[in-house]
């Protein structure tokens, strides 16, 4: 069973994923995999480098052959058609790699596995999941935790939150919601409850009669 997990910035995805892992359920992070598919030697990076080889300035590669994310971000930010092209190159590869990672974790005997993705719904990765778990915190707390963790002020944190999928929309698409507005201790208790539930669901699914 694959649990897709998402939430806005600083909602606690990484913290919650670690709490699940401590109970024996491992995770794959879609952001890590998105970085993997554009590492040197990957076909997606070669395609991207070729498309923008004739851009003004240094192009989209750093001197060491790695992707210059900032340069690429500027190009796709300015041109939605380029963004779509980039997604057509990267999304299928990210998806294929996620499937591989998830299958490997499932084969290693995990009771269920988590697919952690900030863009679970926006990217369509939720289709890979059997259930979707949304980590939810009130916006004021989300802004406070973003400002405390990242080097941004409150106004910047507020702007990042405003640019993401609205909280109500995310919640409307959830099968399960974990309220992470309390202490870490409370979060761990809620994770333990969900863990019990997911193990029950997994054993029901594996029954043959
Ligand atoms: P995300 O992965 O969703 O961006 P993180 O797991 O990095 O979020 O959490 C954001 C910040 O909030 C981190 O500094 C983390 O330590 C803190 N945090 C997460 N959950 C709690 C909690 N229940 N109580 C207090 N701080 C928390």
TrEMBL record:
In terms of one coarse class, where is the protein primarily found? cytoplasm
Q: Secretion signal: which residues?
A: none
Encoding gene, per UniProt annotation: coaE
Describe the function of this protein: Catalyzes the phosphorylation of the 3'-hydroxyl group of dephosphocoenzyme A to form coenzyme A.
Q: Report the Pfam families cross-referenced here.
A: CoaE
Taxonomy, superkingdom: Bacteria
Under catalytic activity, the entry for this protein gives: 3'-dephospho-CoA + ATP = ADP + CoA + H(+)
Q: Where in the cell is it found?
A: Cytoplasm
The answer to whether UniProt assigns keyword Kinase to this entry is yes
SUPFAM superfamilies tied to this protein: P-loop containing nucleoside triphosphate hydrolases
Q: Which protein is depicted?
A: Dephospho-CoA kinase
**E.C. designation(s):** 2.7.1.24
Chain positions recorded as ATP binding sites: 10-15
Q: Which PROSITE patterns match?
A: DPCK (PS51219)
User: What HAMAP family has UniProt attached to this entry?
Assistant: Dephospho_CoA_kinase
**Which InterPro entries does the UniProt record give?**
Depp_CoAkinase, P-loop_NTPase
Q: Which UniProt keywords apply?
A: ATP-binding, Coenzyme A biosynthesis, Cytoplasm, Kinase, Nucleotide-binding, Transferase
> Which GO terms of the molecular function aspect are on file?
dephospho-CoA kinase activity
Whose protein is this, by species?
A: Halomonas alkalicola
Gene3D superfamilies associated with the record:
P-loop containing nucleotide triphosphate hydrolases
Pathway field of the UniProt record reads: Cofactor biosynthesis; coenzyme A biosynthesis; CoA from (R)-pantothenate: step 5/5
Q: Which family does it belong to?
A: Belongs to the CoaE family.
The answer to keyword Membrane applying to this record is no
PANTHER family recorded for this chain? BIFUNCTIONAL COENZYME A SYNTHASE-RELATED, DEPHOSPHO-COA KINASE-RELATED
């Amino acid at each position: 069973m694959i649990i897709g997990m998402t939430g806005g910035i600083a909602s606690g995805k990484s913290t919650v994923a670690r709490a699940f892992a401590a109970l024996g359920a491992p995770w794959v992070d879609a952001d890590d995999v998105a970085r993997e598919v554009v590492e040197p030697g990957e076909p997606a990076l070669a395609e991207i480098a070729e498309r923008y080889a004739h851009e003004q300035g240094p192009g989209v590669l750093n001197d060491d052959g790695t992707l210059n994310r900032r340069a690429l971000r500027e190009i796709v930010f300015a041109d939605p058609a380029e963004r779509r092209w980039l997604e057509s190159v990267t999304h299928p590869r990210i998806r294929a790699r996620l499937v591989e990672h998830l299958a490997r974790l499932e084969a290693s005997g995990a009771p269920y596995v988590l697919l952690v993705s900030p863009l679970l719904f926006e990217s369509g990765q939720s289709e890979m999941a059997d259930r979707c778990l949304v980590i939810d915190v009130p916006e004021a707390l989300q802004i406070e935790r973003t400002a405390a963790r990242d080097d941004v002020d409150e106004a910047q944190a507020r702007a990042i939150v405003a640019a993401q999928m609205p909280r109500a929309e995310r919640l409307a698409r959830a099968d399960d919601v974990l309220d992470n507005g309390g202490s870490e201790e409370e979060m761990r208790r809620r994770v333990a409850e969900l863990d019990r539930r997911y193990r029950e669901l997994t054993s029901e699914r594996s029954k043959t009669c």
